[in-house]
Amino acid sequence: MVKQPAAAKAVPGNGRRFAIALACSLFAGLGVATLLMVAVAVSDRRHMGQAIPLSPAWGALALHTATFFVMTKAWVHDRRLAWYWPVFGLLSLGVFVASPLPLFSILMIPTLVPPMVLAVYLCYYHLRLLTAAPPAGH
Known about the structure:
Layout: H1 15-47, H2 56-76, H3 84-98, H4 109-128
Helix pairs in contact: 1-2, 1-4, 2-3, 2-4, 3-4
């Protein structure tokens, strides 16, 4: 007797949450890509061949992006993370927002607001649930 292959399991997660996460990630990607392109263009004119100066905002943005994606993936799958993920997310978002950015970054606000709002909600979501039960895997 030939054994039939098992039916493919559905990817766990919430479709609505996935759509929200995808939309916010696309907005974030568009905003960051535009921010980088303009920053390089402005830096090339100012420094003419010298190394591009790094701002603390870029490091904070990289850290925030990593924590944003980790927290978003856990949120879509309705899983909680350890307390330090949302704390790092809030700190990196605060450093990025408080960093002195060039005037052109004001143009990126419409694309960066949706992912920043989701990031703040994700921090609330993961910290709020810590009081209910211990995180998975700990």
